[in-house]
Amino acid sequence: MGVEYFERYEIFVNAINEKYPNIVIVSTPGPFPDGDMFEYGWEQLKKLNAALADEHYYRPPEWFKANADRYDSYDRDGVKVFAGEYAAHPKDVENGLKRIIGTLRYLKLLL
């Protein structure tokens, strides 16, 4: 991901929309839920007026609890968000139950 991705994204979206105007293109602000690339990615998606952004996050269960209000400050009239890839991944823990509970707790807190 980087500058080239968003330059190419614009070319692809324009070409696809010209031929298939009813298709909604899903993009991503980056492979991580925070950091410089994430911020840059969101800046670009807003500038390009993207329809839908797919955020990805694989983090420890504590991250999910701390980010339960993550979308409260997002612009409701801006780029829509599709959280398509996420899972709680405790460090050094192979306990599947802890992973499941962490992920489910996040989904419950989002409601």
UniProtKB/TrEMBL annotation:
**Gene3D superfamilies, per database record:** Glycosidases
Q: Which domain of life is it from?
A: Bacteria
According to the entry, every stretch annotated as the Alpha-L-arabinofuranosidase 1 catalytic domain falls at: 4-76
InterPro entries recorded: ASD1_cat (IPR055235), GH (IPR017853), Glycosyl_Hydrolase_51 (IPR051563)
Q: Pfam families this protein is in?
A: ASD1_dom
Under PANTHER family, the record lists: ALPHA-L-ARABINOFURANOSIDASE 1
Its protein name is: Alpha-L-arabinofuranosidase 1 catalytic domain-containing protein
